[in-house]
UniProtKB/TrEMBL annotation:
This is LLM class flavin-dependent oxidoreductase. Pfam families: Bac_luciferase. To bacterial alkanal monooxygenase alpha and beta chains. InterPro entries: Bact_Lucif_Oxidored, CmoO-like, Luciferase-like_dom, Luciferase-like_sf. GO terms for molecular function: oxidoreductase activity, acting on paired donors, with incorporation or reduction of molecular oxygen. Transmembrane segments: none annotated. Coiled coil: none annotated.
Length: 327
């Protein structure tokens, strides 16, 4: 089984965005040494508690401080952009870091309606046109525009020896169908949805020529089950707060989570949240991932871990790497 990391650059209460981004860079260096396959950075806009609106910028820094791990976006929210601009940016990364760059692509707004309006005109129309934009993006990478195409004479320079590898990210059958139609790899966000993920991914694998998939899961690992459960209190409270339009100061501390007075409705929300998080000691985490592997029939999981302590997050990834003997 291959393991990778998805980093949303979370800001903890009491920390600054700079500290969150520094933690992202440091974690990428650790992941490189631990034997993780990929390190992807998410894109969000004006979402309190998340520090990365521009993955390509921080990937440029991560690339210079790592050696072998693949780096990529998780994901570029394509409806906000022109295909040529994204092709240029990721071609530049692929030129600097040959054979190491992934381009994860998504269609979500990644922020509020106001942020979406500030980023792009008529976002819903751009979502509708996304399959065409994706065609343009892939054509720029494959140099395959037909002669009559208006963009056939331009190139998204620099042109790397090895193009970025495109992945489509999604949480629905619609995204799986699109990835299969375009013949590109597919990343399914298990931690973001209650849909029947295994059937969606199996449909992609059945219909796609690429047949490369990974599953993004939320995991919190510690030396003991009790410690992992305690660490998970922070992210559980934060999700409850976000659902209520709160949590703007970032990931709460364990102390804050323990002191929080949950209503019955909020307690029910926590139980639902826990269904989408793997929490446990290293052997328990490994067992649950192996069970998911049987369900999904995939050989790669991408792990997102949210804790208040950046040290606890790093330790979680270290314990998992050691349990799976990644090196």
């Amino acid at each position: 089984m291959k393991l990778s990391i998805l980093d949303q650059a979370p800001i903890s209460t009491g920390a600054t965005p700079k500290e969150a981004l520094t933690a992202t860079i440091e974690l990428a260096k650790v992941a490189d040494k631990l034997g993780y396959t990929r390190y992807w950075v998410a894109e969000h806009h004006d979402l309190p508690g998340l520090a990365s609106p521009a993955p390509d910028i921080i990937l440029g820094i991560i690339g210079t401080q790592t050696d072998t791990i693949r780096i990529g976006s998780g994901a570029v929210l394509l409806p906000h952009y022109k295909a040529f601009n994204i092709a240029e940016r990721y071609n530049m990364l692929a030129t600097l870091f040959p054979g190491r760059v992934d381009l994860g692509i998504g269609r979500a707004p990644g922020g509020s309606a106001e942020a979406t309006m500030a980023l792009s005109d008529n976002f819903l129309e751009q979502v509708r046109k996304m399959p065409e934009t994706l065609d343009d993006l892939l054509a720029f990478f494959h140099h395959s525009f037909q002669k009559e195409h208006m963009f056939s004479k331009i190139k998204p320079t620099p042109i790397p020896e090895t193009s970025p590898v495109p992945w489509l990210l999604g949480t629905s059958e619609k995204s799986a169908i699109l990835a299969a139609e375009k013949g590109i790899a597919y990343a399914f966000g298990d931690f973001m949805t209650d849909q029947d993920g295994p059937s969606i991914v199996k449909k992609y694998l059945k219909d796609s020529h690429a047949k490369q998939s990974l599953i993004a899961v939320s995991v919190i690992c510690a030396e003991t089950t009790e410690e992992a459960e305690k660490l998970a209190l922070s992210s559980q409270l934060w999700k409850v707060q976000q659902a209520k339009g709160e949590g703007k100061s970032g990931v709460p501390s364990i102390k804050e989570a323990k002191a929080f007075d949950y209503s019955n409705e909020e307690k029910s929300m926590v139980q639902d949240i826990k269904k989408n998080i793997i929490i446990g000691n290293p052997s328990e985490v490994k067992h649950q991932l192996e069970e998911l592997q049987d369900k999904y029939q995939t050989d790669e999981f991408m792990i997102v871990t949210i804790t208040h302590s950046y040290e606890a997050r790093r330790k979680s990834y270290e314990l998992i790497a050691r349990e799976f003997k990644l090196l």
